[in-house]
Specification:
The protein is built from ten helices and eleven strands. By secondary structure, the chain is α+β, with helices and mostly antiparallel strands. About 5% of the residues have low confidence. Bound molecules: 2-acetamido-2-deoxy-beta-D-glucopyranose (NAG) (3 copies). One 2-acetamido-2-deoxy-beta-D-glucopyranose binds next to α10. It holds the Pfam family Inhibitor_I29.
């Protein structure tokens, strides 16, 4: 006896629904995030002391994961967020260990107005060979050292044609005060390099992720030197543009949770002034559609963060002289006579 057409159809629908629905039905939402967490742990080589710690970290991971998914789905933004090495940290933990910039209350820096007339429409100092590979400060609040070193590496290459990776550890160990991994001032770093008549290479004085004792022998044999530094006239984007047209520039920037999870695109905030961070601007450009202008930011959170360690940060926002995330407020560049 032939099976009636209707019955065949019902069986077919049942089979399709059954095979399709099954994997979804046996996996709860939480277990799928748990699997993501496991995968993330192996990708970033993370392990936890015990089950209680793992449970706690998983909860934070799940919150961060949900935040990222929600942001990427709902927000009509020019940038995307993504998982990275910070995804099992709370915002407070993250800010405590991966930033570290202090701003002097009594500025004593020289500010010179720049008068460059022919500033190119776009520029990438990486293409000029003036930028070393992205570094990783973690977990040490020494952004102040990394951003200053990036600017020094830039001017040294521009003046000597020799790109040298220079030592953040020397600044962490030798710049006086309680700075080190607990945050520091960019101007103290410049003043130290000038006083010491130079800074060692990264290979000679490599990064240790903690503050140690200043190595006086290495300190006495620096590889590259600068003779001065200047502050860019603040809250003036044209001045910052002229400075970046000359060389990589170190800047202070306000950052928040969105900034820490940045994955790609042109970042335009909003930036809560949760914490201060320092990065280097190593170029600028305009989006492919020719509409949105951006700074090219070199960060010190390794190559997994953002676009291979870099961020595009929106520039030329009307009525925002301080710039997106306050980027136009504190900018410095080293000089070599
Ligand atoms: C998203 O932004 C684009 C460009 O600004 C705009 O055309 C579009 O209407 C926006 N969509 C929503 C859902 O807000
Ligand atoms: C730019 O011009 C101003 C005013 O003429 C001058 O004071 C300043 O030194 C100039 N800056 C540079 C870098 O030449
Ligand atoms: C992240 O961006 C969203 C959307 O633009 C914003 O509403 C939120 O306040 C930002 N989060 C933080 C922590 O600044």
């Amino acid at each position: 006896m032939a099976i009636p057409y209707e019955v065949k159809l019902l069986i077919a629908i049942y089979v399709i629904l059954w095979t399709r629905a099954d994997p979804v039905m046996c996996q709860t939402y939480e277990s799928s995030v748990a699997a993501k967490h496991e995968q993330w742990m192996s990708q970033y080589g993370r392990s936890y002391a015990d089950e209680a710690e793992k449970e706690k970290r998983f909860k934070i991971f799940m919150e961060n994961f949900e935040y990222i998914e929600k942001f990427n789905n709902a927000e009509n933004k020019s940038y995307k967020l993504g998982l990275n090495q910070f995804s099992d940290l709370t915002e407070q933990e993250f800010m405590a260990s991966y930033t570290g910039l202090k701003i002097p209350t009594t500025p004593s820096t020289v500010i010179t107005t720049l008068n460059l007339s022919n500033v190119p429409t776009s520029l990438d100092w990486r293409e000029q060979g003036a930028v070393t590979a992205v570094k990783d400060q973690s977990p040490c609040g020494a952004c102040w050292a990394f951003s200053v070193v990036a600017a020094v590496e830039g001017i040294v290459q521009i003046k000597t044609k020799n790109l040298m990776s220079l030592s953040e550890q020397q600044l962490v160990d030798c710049v006086s005060g309680k700075e080190g991994c607990w945050g520091g001032f960019m101007n103290d770093a410049f003043n130290y390099i000038i006083r010491n008549k130079g800074i060692c290479t990264e290979t000679d004085y490599p990064f240790q992720h903690v503050k140690g004792t200043c190595n006086k022998d290495k300190e006495a044999a620096p590889a590259a030197q600068i003779t001065g530094f200047q502050k860019v006239p603040p809250n003036n984007e044209q001045q910052l543009l002229q400075a970046v047209a000359m060389q990589p520039v170190t800047v202070a920037i306000f950052i928040d949770k969105n900034f820490s999870a940045y994955k790609s695109g042109i970042y335009d905030g909003p930036c809560q002034p949760t914490s201060k961070h320092a990065v280097a601007i190593v170029g600028y450009g305009t989006s492919e559609d020719g509409i949105t202008k951006y700074w090219l930011i070199k960060n010190s959170w390794g190559g997994d963060w953002g676009e291979g360690g870099y961020m595009k940060l929106r520039r030329e926002v009307p009525d925002q002289p301080q710039g997106v995330c306050g980027v136009n407020k504190e900018a410095y560049y080293p000089t070599i006579n």
